[in-house]
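Researcher: Please generate the 3D structure of the following complex. Treat every line as part of one assembly.
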Amino acid sequence: MIPELGQLALVLALLLALAQGVLPILGAWRGNRALMALARPAAAGQAVFVGTAFMLLVWAFLQFDFSVRYVADNSNLALPWYYRIAAVWGAHEGSMLLWVAILDVWTVALIALSRSLPEPFLARVVGVLGLIAAGFLAFILFTSNPFERLLPMPADGGDLNPVLQDPGMTFHPPVIYMGYVGFSVAFAFAIAGLLGGELEQAWVRWSRPWTNVAWGFLSAGIVAGSWWAYAELGWGGWWFWDPVENASFMPWLVGAALVHAQAVTEKRGSLRAWTILLSIFAFSLSLLGTFLVRSGVLTSVHAFASDPRRGLFILCFLAVVVGGSLLLYALRAPKVAGGKPFGAVSRESAVLVGNLMLAVAAAMVLLGTLFPLVGDALDLGKVSVGPPYFGFLFTLLMLPVVVLLPFGPFLRWGGAGDTGLLRSVLLRVAVAAVAGAVVAAFLVGGQPKAIAGTAGAAWVGVGTLLYVYKRWREMPRGRRYPAEMAGMLLAHFGVGVFLVGVLLSESLSVTRDVRMAPGDEQAIGAYRFRFDGVHATRGPNWHAEQGTVTVLKDGRTVAVMHPQKRTYLRGQVQTESAIDPGVTRDLYVALGEPMDAGNLEGAWALRLYEKPFVRWIWAGGLLMMLGGFASAADRRFRARRTAGAAQPEAAPAAAIARESRA
Amino acid sequence: MHAPFRLLACVLLLAAGLAAAQAIDPLPFRDRAEEVRFQNLTRQLRCLVCQNENLADSNADLARDLRHEVFGLMRQGKSDDEIKQYLVDRYSRFVLYDPPLDRGTVLLWFGPALILLAGGAVVWLTIRRRSRAAPAAATAPTDNGDDW
Amino acid sequence: MSRLVPLFAFLLLVALFGFGIWWNTGHDQREVPSPLIGKPAPAYALPHLDDPSRTLAKADMLGKPYLLNVFASWCVACGDEHPVLMAEGRSLGIPLVGYDYKDDPADAKAWLAQHGNPYDLVIADREGRTAIDFGVYGAPESFLIDARGVIRYKRIGPFTPEVIEKELKPRIAALRKEAP
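Model: Done. Output below.
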């Protein structure tokens, strides 16, 4: 009964989504207030039904309802309750439901927080979101129904993919979807702006906080995924340029460009068409990621069964949504460059160059990811495109961005501003970079990557701090760091931290595969790893061989580590690496196999790592996430809203007036 | 998302009863330099069984055989390029994660440069047009120091 | 006009994806075509499975085309292919040489005893060393080798009756024609 209710809820949600997608847009077009007024209730109702379906699926998992195929495939009686909840999004069907549910979270938040938007504009925005929801709900109902029955009902189910049975991993999909799907809001704003044709600058202001929050979530999601790959896979790597990772990285790059372009458009009126285009791209790439991951067109060692029907459905949906919006863009994008003029050396130019590099980097990632397919299409033979390609070109393309980064805040809108100031900044960051390089060269010897990393981090970090200092000195208390600026500073500083993490850990990491009998010691750097043998252990739904490795430095015990080799109920084997985290280095141990098969008491194969500064990679990513969140909290984005709430009718007019004054 | 699934196919292969080998594979390296060379080389080679893994990290049985083959070739004094060619001769260019520049990969390697050139031209034109429109006075905006 | 550029670029992408979906209905993505086709088969000398004291070398097989079929008792897909070879192997009209890949000889013998032996001769590559020269990356795989010892065709994955009919038999017929 419950699954049928879930299905019914999805059908009702689809109908409401269609109403939400069609009627308000029609109303905004014809000036029909009654139709426009349908936007909120239709969206709210749609969200309620999707939420109901989602909760019913959760319930089916909690109740071990193996008569539901999806539940039977992805859980079993021994799976702990928290992983049964995570199993809801553990495979294709449920994760699509999560996608729509999160879209509704954004939609409801938008409705709740945008009471002051002009009615026709809000109607269009909510309508666009409704059309997207309708597409996905149709996709779920017609090709990927999570409530499909399985008869006869099995006594026990399969298992949740064991790689998902990790506390960090359970949160990765919802967080990264918050990012992916969050770009739908900026997208809807852009489309609504194109449809309406008015208030070009105003809609950018309204959409900015949404874009920044979405980008913050996407940063967090990517960090979580990268952290998980590092901690779980036992390879000590944190990024593999896998198609699946690239699918999340492309919208992130475009989102980073969009965050900056929106600032220019909102404040100066320039780059309007480009901002619209980026809004479309960011969301399109999110959709594209969904397509790549689920259609099976790329070789990705991936559990989502590739069903050509699903691929075709998403492709058609993609063609309609993205093709339609690009057509709309071609027809209605502002033809004349609006906004205030700017000089060749100005903050606008700097943002433009940074935008160019980020966009080209995203295009490069897209090209590299799709090239094997191009190879098939043009009969060029099977080609592999891997980390050496992406790493090399990405470094080249990001170099100008890193070089420009410290100067952005010091540049003025419209022109260079105080060129003496810029020169002194250049001098100081250059000194900092050289000092960093010298110190690094002194400490680590001739490791070019490590030296470059330290120099680059000093360049960016000191540049950012110089601006912090400038504001501190020049501005009165309380006005020094508005939230938007604080967000920018956090994110820029995060870039510096990230550089340290990437380049130092890449160049200074030590990896060793060793054979160790109990009592054996291996030295890595200043650390001595002592293997103390293996014993059996078990968890709720797995059993494992667990090694004990004691790490000593200068004769003192630094860490006692327990790497495991787990076997789950359905026979899936999963390594659980042991990590001793630290600010300047991680120690990392993965357990392999016994050297003589079956002799658990004897020697084992182990992989030992020392990874200097690896944690700074994620710290940098988290700073960028904080930057996104902080800047969205700026009072400027809220002030109008409270004013508008007091007198809803006057709000649009006031907004227009403010834009024309700005 | 779904980096998590990259391993699954291989996990399943192992579970399905293929002889379980391990990516953790201690080899008798002469010295640290040889070990680092081996690690760097095997990281650039793609495993044909678990196709989204490199030779260094793959659990597949074949990956272990090929690691040992690479090690043997290193010991015979073969250069990195010779070892790569040895594998390409047997398994095709697919094994190279770093695709060599040839007629088939021109677009791959120079495509980003083309896009950059085109985009750069547009940016340059934009900046030139907009700065022409800007009278010199525009460099002194109504800036109260809080132009954020 | 320039406003249409993104749309055109996107339409190209859509075409590429459409191609990808279509391509995947007819191809196994994991299949990596062998560079050895049209090239001389690597020199090999491997012991017979049932009598390790005797070896089969490439030179022994020169002068007549044959099909080299890589299999193993641990290989699940080989179990699917086996009945097809049992049924069709004789009708090929060329020798069928089994190549037992990374297998315990006892297991392989038991497997053949249980399921039947379609091969004229079985050689064993226990370490899988020679298989690397052949570019084997899984089982089953099959090589059609001509009278001069050149690899003419490779099948990756199990033979099905359709594949034998459509891909293998025409090639064998062609080989017969070019033989003196």
